[in-house]
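The data are quoted verbatim for reference:
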Amino acid sequence: MRLIHRPTARSRGTSCRAAAVGVGITLLLGITAAPASASAAPVIRFSSDWSTTVEGAIEANAPVLVDYDPARLPNCRAQYAGGDAWSIGVEYRIDGGAVQRRPVTQLNGNRRQVKVLASLPLGADARELELWFVSGDRAGCREYDSQYGANYRFAVAQ
């Protein structure tokens, strides 16, 4: 596969090309993106069709990635000054401990919320990961994706 950026009025003279090489990507700048390996962090994927899948093993003393589709929480979407004034975050706790939060959306350069992966660090003694999602906007709207209040729970291997 070969990707070519064609200059536009904004980017004239800044042409760049990238080509897929094996499973890594090599840019003309000489930077190679590392290919996925067997030791890659596991991913918990929450899809727009309401399915939840786990790719890889969730293990203690290692991070787990959360891939959340914002279409699951579509209602709190206020706008302000031409940009998105809302966000979605994952709230989680390990073994019933303190609640922590990471964003699963962030504003891009056009002031639009885009999906981002959240990395959740798991301690060496972790046994269970519990999480839920909260959407909110500047108008005070709040909505939750929490498996009807039960939260999503995942066993952590030792």
Notes: The CA atoms of residues 89 and 103 lie 4 Å apart. The first strand starts at residue 2 and ends at 4. Confidence is low (pLDDT under 50) at residues 1-38.
